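Sequence in, structure out.
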Amino acid sequence: MGIFSTIMSKIFGHADAAPASGSTGSAGAASSGATPSGATSASGGATNAAPPTAPGAPVDVEAVLTRLASGKGQTLNWRTSIVDLLKLLDMDSSLDARKHLAQELHYTESTDDTATMNVWLIRQVMQKLAENGGKVPEDLRH
């Protein structure tokens, strides 16, 4: 699984978890009746995890990330910082990881100019989330 796929999975997975615990969620309750943890849905509910996000209403990326950020003990500026977005999602935010993400998303400039690369990465990630069923505010895509 690539870095972007992991980002998307973590964001879209949190979107599924919130409605399932906050509502009756008949499909989710029927398939994972033992425990409501995300681990069981990842291992036992693979068929249930994908359908709610893709064909359903778009995932409100901003709402998910804002909710995740409110639970962290530090201020993370995920709107403009790829490093903070990765930290928010409990992912590796090292330069090597960001270079790998840049390669995965077909970044064509020099990865030695990390400031330019990082700005491009956060915009590209938000754009790709929007293209894959995420509801992302216009100002976060450009």
